[in-house]
Write a structure and sequence with these properties.
Layout: H1 2-23, E1 25-32, E2 43-46, E3 52-54, E4 60-65, E5 70-74, E6 81-84, E7 90-94, E8 105-108, E9 111-114, E10 122-126, H2 127-130, E11 149-153, E12 163-167, E13 180-183, E14 186-187, E15 197-203, H3 206-209, E16 220-225, E17 231-246, H4 255-263, H5 277-281, E18 285-297, E19 301-313, E20 320-333, E21 338-352, H6 370-376, H7 402-408, E22 410-427, E23 432-451, E24 461-484, E25 487-510, E26 531-552, E27 556-567, E28 576-587, E29 600-614, E30 625-629, E31 639-644, E32 653-666, E33 671-683, E34 686-690, E35 702-706, E36 708-725, E37 729-747, E38 752-754, E39 768-770, E40 778-781, E41 784-787, E42 797-799, E43 809-812, E44 826-829, E45 833-845, E46 848-859, E47 861-864, H8 865-870, E48 909-911, E49 914-925, H9 928-933, E50 938-952, H10 965-968, E51 980-981, E52 988-998
Parallel strand pairs: 1-7, 13-16, 47-51
Antiparallel strand pairs: 1-4, 2-3, 2-5, 5-6, 8-9, 10-15, 11-12, 13-14, 15-16, 17-18, 17-52, 18-19, 19-20, 20-21, 21-22, 22-23, 23-24, 24-25, 25-26, 26-27, 27-28, 28-29, 29-32, 30-31, 32-33, 33-36, 34-35, 36-37, 37-45, 38-39, 39-40, 40-44, 41-43, 42-43, 45-46, 46-49, 47-48, 49-50, 50-52
Helix pairs in contact: 6-7
């Protein structure tokens, strides 16, 4: 009987095991590294299937398997392992480091290299740094994180403001000197959202950038977006919300103080109100950012797709920005030799802006700028008069009411951006592959502006402008890899063609029949005020390029690059140019005398020299151009005149770059140091300059020409340290420091002096100079020497024009003629920073982590044009004006209170040094048991703050200034106009809460 029972039990057990093997079961496992530390994110895939998962934060996974399955464990930097399933209920896998994969792979032009094999100057920013805190623009993540890269908003904290990037200083004065943006191989692409970016590399020297030839003089930013991975479908949700406020305000006079100030030097009747105009235009702002992505794949195909919604309500009323983006990447291994891929990006943005950064080019005293109006407008006036109309300024220029300008004007920009890039990669032979790409992008931008008829000082108007830009890119190149003895050779050769065209249409009208139409019915305006304009422009670039990389014995490195570019922008005989470069590297740490060193784990010397170019000017600049003056009345005819002379000799700017670098790793790379010294000579500078009229009746003609040479040289330091690294606690530090010095070496036509002050300050107010042997963009004005106390004038100084009484300002008398006029102007300051730096500390303790990021600059003076206005006597003023000179208050540096001209002098030049707590973030990853109960792979919460503290002596709103003013628009997007401050949108400080979910 007992024997029968045992036999029956065995039969049941075998039967159940058979069913168990057929139906499968849930296997649990842990994946560890050689130090028994869990590895999160390891892909666990059932071979020959799409079934898979990934390990969680604690290296744990669960997966349904059956007997006979083979599990593949793969992770970057580790050897892929395969384990056969018998009847295990749990398994523990120890991943072995793959020496061939441990080296960080860095994306370079038309390929990638191990970081240890790089011979050029390249800075990398990883995905975790890009997403350390919420960003409206991914470009902002470079600020303070890459040595030699200066990042700045073109208008403070304005929602949707464009970002300016400068790599190793300004390499031009009249052409755009920003870097070339390349996204997934598409040259000149729009930067995607930070959450979609896997890595970002900045190519800085000629060895790295010469492969892009005519477009590499300003550096190259290479962006690689996220791709799908083998395994089960992964879903990620990122959401954040922040509250924002002004980082700073000016201390202005209230109504009583203002009236007393005005009455101290003239008759003035105080108004009945007490309005803080800053309160009227500022509000609490906010940002919301929501991203959803999913990815996955099998052995032959993978995909990644995401959608992102961003909304920012600015800290100035009626300013906001809304953007919806999507991105999709698909890669398919069609056959053993053929791989296909597709990248699609699209966005729709809507920006509602208020007028800031006034050029002053208006008939009402420059009164078109909300920020400067709020500073200037008298505080003893309310928003409305008793009859319901808007109040006007009670002193000085007639300027519009700041509340009305902020609330009544409409400035709406809608932009649609679409880009697609297709590629095919075919392995012709074992070591030879061919890649072809085709890209298409289009940007459609519509700007509508409206000013109602309710303003007293100017006529209402409506305008609508539309610009459509399309871009075609085709690139084809061969890559050959071979082992030659102890060496590895890589050859690259290719052809590139790119074409862009722009179609523009704009219309404007004034004196509308009704304000209800806004800018959607321009026919409602007076016939004689209607204006229509349009244009078409097109440019092409075709190129041939090649590169050789040779690594001998893993010790000696050689890189040689050449590119030949032809661009339609230049004159017939100067369209083509050749841009070569060469670089050498020596891995000293691989020499026998250092091999096995416990101290030096990496030591490499780098040296490079090459030529890059700049063709970033508008099309047709070498040709003569005509201008149409439209009819101003129904019965008048339009006229045609010469607008630009031809320049048959116009050619490329060329930058000749030398770079010397050293990479050092100590104690198993717990300390990593990179040092770089560079010298850049940019010749044949492009600049639009006035010429003598060569045509009858033509005056004020300008033409682009090659005007001279400038030099940039500098030093960069990047340092990373792993200070503490234990089971539960770690602390790492990343530090970078960069110094750049520039000067104008040669100017064919002598000094270039121009002004960027608002035009209403007074015509002829020059503010900057370019002079041979001097730094670029030095401030130009009178040298202030304090307050005149009466009696004899101190030696070497003089008084200006009719301001010759005690309490008036003294200036240096440059030519010693006893009179202060234009002959006494001189350099009064330098906006170029001595050095910039950034330092990031990352701490982690179990599931908590803390990120602290400081960024700053030392040196770099600021011309405070806001103070030029506020100490002028014909507007509101800073409270410091109460310390102005009087017969009983002579120990002061502030001249007596009166109305004077708006002087550009050293009195308003200030130190712009600053240190800023850019970000502090505290994050928490929920434990795996809690996450599993919620059905998630990961759950993370983060609380962060941005721009919470700024340490500076600058008296203005913010030391990161970017005003280009009345003249700045013609100087290459701020290449020369630097350090000017007037009417900028304020920088914001914010507190942010974010949530990350992974399924």
């Amino acid at each position: 009987m007992k024997l029968k029972i045992k036999l029956m039990a065995m039969i049941v057990l075998v039967f159940n095991m058979s069913l168990f093997a057929q139906d499968g079961y849930v296997l649990s496992g842990t994946v560890l590294d050689g130090a028994n530390m869990p590895i999160p994110g390891v892909n666990v895939l059932v071979a020959n299937s799409t079934t898979g998962t990934a390990t969680d934060f604690d290296g744990i996974f669960q997966l349904k398997v059956k007997r006979g399955d083979v599990l593949k464990f793969s992770y970057i930097g580790y050897v892929t392992q395969s384990i056969s399933i018998t009847d295990q209920q749990t398994i523990s896998v120890v991943m072995a480091e793959d020496a061939s994969q441990l080296e960080e792979v860095v994306v370079v032009g038309y390929g990638s290299q191990k970081k240890s094999d790089i011979t050029g100057a390249v800075s990398s920013v990883k995905s975790e740094d890009l997403n350390a805190f919420p960003l409206a623009n991914a470009e902002q993540a470079l600020q303070g994180r890459a040595a030699g890269v200066v990042v700045q908003s073109n208008n403070g904290g304005e929602p949707g403001a464009p970002i300016s990037i400068k790599v190793r200083g300004n390499t031009s004065i009249g052409a755009n000197s920003g870097p070339l943006i390349v996204v997934d191989g598409f040259v000149g692409a729009t930067m995607p959202q930070a959450n979609d970016i896997e890595s970002m590399e900045v190519l800085k020297d000629a060895s790295a950038t010469a492969i892009y030839g005519s477009r590499g003089s300003g550096g190259v930013v290479l962006v690689t977006t996220k791709k799908g991975k083998n395994g089960r479908l992964s879903v990620e949700v990122n959401t954040s919300y922040s509250s924002q406020s002004t980082a700073n305000r000016l201390d202005l006079l209230n109504a009583d103080e203002f009236a007393a100030y005005q009455q101290s030097f003239r008759t003035y009747e105080q108004g009945t109100a007490n309005t803080d105009w800053q309160d009227e235009i500022y509000q609490t702002g906010s940002t919301a950012n929501h991203q959803f992505s999913f990815s996955g794949g099998s052995e032959n195909i993978n995909f990644y797709a995401s959608a992102n919604y961003f909304k920012q309500d600015g800290i100035i009323v009626n300013s906001d920005f809304e953007k919806l983006t999507f991105l999709s990447n698909v890669d398919a291994q069609v056959t053993e030799k053929l791989k296909l891929g597709m990248n699609i990006y699209g966005s729709r943005g809507t920006k509602n802006g208020v007028l800031t950064q006034s050029t002053g080019d208006t008939a009402n005293g420059g009164g078109d700028d909300v920020i400067s109006l709020a500073f200037r407008f008298t505080p003893d006036r309310g928003i409305y008069n008793t009859d319901g109309t808007f109040t006007q300024n009670s002193v000085g220029d007639g300027i519009e009411n700041p509340w009305a300008v902020a609330n009544e004007l409409i400035n709406e920009t809608k932009s649609d951006n679409f880009r697609t890039n297709l590629y095919a990669n075919y392995d012709i032979l074992k070591n030879l592959s061919f890649k072809t790409t085709f890209g298409y992008s289009t940007l459609n931008e519509t700007v509508g502006q409206f000013k109602p008829q309710t303003f007293k000082l100017s006529i209402g108007y409506a305008s609508l402008d539309n610009k459509r830009t399309t871009n075609l890119l085709s690139e084809n190149y061969l890559t050959y890899n071979a082992e030659i003895g102890k060496g590895n050779l890589t050859l690259l050769a290719g052809y590139s063609y790119q074409k862009q065209n722009t179609v523009y249409f704009g219309a404007l009208t004034q004196e509308l029949l009704s304000d209800d139409f806004l800018f959607y019915n321009l026919a409602a305006g007076q016939l004689q005020t209607r204006r229509v304009e349009s244009y078409f422009s097109e440019w092409e670039i075709q190129s041939q390029f090649g590169r050789l990389n040779y690594d001998f014995d893993d010790k000696y490195l050689l890189t040689a690059t050449v590119r030949r570019d032809g661009a339609s922008n230049f004159a017939e005989n100067e369209k083509y140019a050749i841009f070569p470069s060469g670089a050498l590297g020596w891995k000293i740490s691989n020499e026998e005398f250092l091999k096995g060193s416990k101290t030096v784990s990496n030591l490499k010397l780098r040296a490079s020299y090459g030529v890059t170019g700049n063709q970033a000017i508008s099309p047709y600049q070498s040709l003569s151009q005509l201008s149409i003056t439209p009819s101003t009345d129904v019965n008048t005819d339009p006229s045609v005149s010469v607008a630009q002379e031809a320049n048959p000799d116009l050619k490329w700017e060329s930058s000749y770059q030398t770079n010397l670098g050293l990479d050092l790793g100590l104690f198993s790379n717990r300390i990593s140091l990179s040092l770089d010294y560079y010298n850049i000579d940019t010749k044949d500078l492009l600049l639009e300059t006035a010429v003598l009229p060569a045509y009858s009746g033509a005056v004020d003609l300008e033409v682009y020409s090659n005007v001279g040479e400038i030099n940039n040289k500098g030093f960069e330091i990047s340092l990373s340290t792993k200070n503490i690294y234990t089971d539960n606690f770690s602390w790492t530090t990343d530090f970078n420091w960069a110094a750049n010095r520039n000067k104008a070496v040669k100017l064919n036509n002598g000094d270039i002096i121009d002004g960027a002050a608002p035009s209403y300050f007074s015509s002829g107010k020059d503010t900057y100079i370019l002079r041979e042997g001097e730094a670029i963009g030095l401030f130009w004005g009178h040298d202030y020497q304090g307050v005149y106390q009466g009696g004899s004038v101190p030696e070497g100084t003089a008084l200006k024009e009719s301001y010759n009484q005690a309490g008036d300002p003294l200036f240096v008398d440059v030519n010693s003629d006893g009179v202060i006029n234009a002959d006494d102007l001189k350099t009064i300051g330098d906006p170029n920073q001595d050095f910039t730096f950034g330092v990031t500390n990352n701490f982690s303790y179990k599931n908590l982590d803390l990120n602290i990021f400081f960024q700053g600059a030392v040196g770099g003076e600021i011309l405070n044009l806001t103070n030029v206005q506020l100490y002028n006597g014909d507007s509101n003023a800073l409270t410091d004006i109460q310390n102005a000179w009087t017969p009983t208050n002579t120990e002061t540096n502030i001249p007596s209170a009166k109305i004077r001209d708006r002087e550009i002098s050293s009195r308003f030049v200030e130190d712009g040094s600053y240190v800023r707590l850019k970000n502090i973030a505290l994050g928490y990853n929920f434990p795996s048991d809690v996450v599993e109960k919620l059905g998630l792979d990961n759950l993370r919460l983060t609380l962060s703050g941005q721009n919470l503290l700024t340490f500076t002596k600058y008296s203005g709103l913010d030391p990161e200034v970017s005003y280009f003013g009345g003249g700045g628009g013609s100087t290459g997007s701020g290449n020369v106009v630097q350090g000017h401050d007037f009417g900028n949108y304020p920088t914001v400080k914010s507190v942010n809460f974010s949530l990350n979910l992974k399924f």
